[in-house]
Amino acid sequence: MARERQAAADGMAEAEVACGELAEVLARSGIVLPSLSVDPVTYGYEQSRVLVELGRCNVATTRKLIDVLKRAGR
User: Fold this and answer.
1) Helix (H, G, I), strand (E, B) or coil at 53
2) I need a labelling partner for 66 at 20 to 30 A (CA). Which of 25, 29, 42, 55 fits?
3) How many CB atoms lie within 10 A of CB 31?
4) Mind listing the pLDDT tens digit for each residue in 37-62?
5) Is pLDDT of 17 > 90?
6) Separation CA 32–CA 23 (nearest Å)
7) Are strands 37-38 and 52-53 parallel, antiparallel or unpaired?
8) pTM value?
């Protein structure tokens, strides 16, 4: 049980770091996802099933994200 809790804690920490990194990268492109976070439901699982909630955003932000991803894919 202790190993499972540690694995879950490690996964959550990794997800929090990833969320922060993603927020920084998006911000450099002028994009803010207001609901970007680790899914709080994830905390309730005994086994690590960490999910990142990318959140809701308006159409203008969605269009910016599309543009950035298109440019990155070239």
Assistant:
1) strand
2) 42
3) 20
4) 988 777 666 666 788 888 788 899 99
5) yes
6) 7
7) antiparallel
8) 0.76
